[in-house]
Amino acid sequence: MLVAMNKRPVAIDLFLIDVATGEMTLHHEQTDPTENVLLDQHGSPAFSTRMTADGTMEFSAIDRRTGARKQLRRIGGAEYPVGVQPQLVTPDGTGLLIGAYGDSDHLRLIRIDRDTGDETVVAAAGGSSLDILGTMAPGVLPPTVFTSRRTGEVIAARFIGDRPRIEVLDDSFTEVFRALSKLSDGVLGTLSSDQTERRWVATFIHDRDPATSWLYDHATGEAHILFRPYPHLEPAHLASMEAVGFSARDGLELRGFLSLPVGVAPANLPLVLLVHGGPWQHDTWGYNPQVQLLANRGYAVLQVNFRGSTGYGRHHTTAAIGEFARAMHTDLIDAVDWAVAQGYVDPQRVGIMGGSYGGYAALVGAALSPDRFAAAVDYVGVSDLVNFMRSLPPFTRPYMANSWFRYVGDPDDPAAAEDMRSRSPIAMIDQIETPLLVAQGANDARVVQAESDNIVTPLRERGIPVEYILATDEGHGFDNPENQILLHRAIERHFEAYLGS
Fold first, then answer.
1. Which residues are catalytic?
2. How confident is the model over 163-178, as pLDDT tens digits?
3. CA distances from 279 to 63, 151, 255, 272, 317 (A)
4. 228 in Cβ contact with 209 (< 8 Å)
């Protein structure tokens, strides 16, 4: 198998591993840290993508004989904060599939011809963007595109909506997809087949019955459940995740999800505002164990795709440029105010919680809107934007041109650094009165331990209630089960103490 590893600290190279012997050999060395080489079905270089200093992405075809690059397309900049995703070589090697906006506000799947550079729209959905979350965590999150086991061609693509949307692109898959869709009231998650594409294994995204696996035989039409990965969870006992929408104070349309506790009147409830990380990600409909834990304990849970979130169009994402601790924060406040106005929420019992960027948002919320939040949870969150960016591993710098540098600033520019500090929780620490729970991994290479230490120590000196969980065996997020349990028991106690339940 081919694997990508950064055995050289400043480069990600491709290695061939013999799975029988464990023998590893270098297959392709990336000589330019700003370039990524895409291989064809035979493992040979076919296309390259390179990021220029200003964040423009250059796509080139690689001559199979000489290795020479022929530039096909240039795409830039801030509307692609996590890069151009996906990037797939067609099975015959003649085309490159990418997610691009073109002349649309929404992300589409585009094919670029290696010989002519001509572009063709392969998949688009009116008013919806291609869902690229799966490209950032392959095998963990549902895929952006489904490919045929038999031909290698793309047969369907995933788009964003109140529920994810699957657009079928291959006529031969239409009947299969129609049959699979009858197996669950969820949305197709993962999919695989035998080489004849007679037998299929499918899982489904669902807010209350997640990842149930089915075996479907297209020749006979028979299907049966293989397993439910969470057999101890009864779907009727879990909270439904309902899509909601409202306007920010400047008129920007925001989408989100509200989960209400089961068996409780949906009025005057305590609320936890759960802020996603990134911030260049988005919340989506499906099973979320944190949401279900909080709803089970009696809290309404609100998730908001604030400006800067991906998936809701070019304008929605780029509206966050320069808006850390500004409009990105007020979007969250507008969401809370909407929930209060609907009668769902007791305004005196609102908490805020998040990880990474969500932790930063929780700290900003506690500092700038102490009247809104009675409790806050900062999980591996950024407290000092300047220190955060300066502490990132050096090889990440070229990849931040369209994200942190474009949206927040360059910490090596004195004027920008001053502005970044003014939007950092560490500069607002005297305004924080809200009781805090802070969780940090001691080995975190993205948000270093100092980001949490620098918040906890001065707040404790001021007598602000702060519980600090420092896990010596964790990085950017807690993965070990015992730490997960420790953290979520602490979250439960924290909100019960300050919000009730």
1. 356, 444, 476
2. 999 999 999 999 999 9
3. 38, 36, 15, 18, 10
4. yes
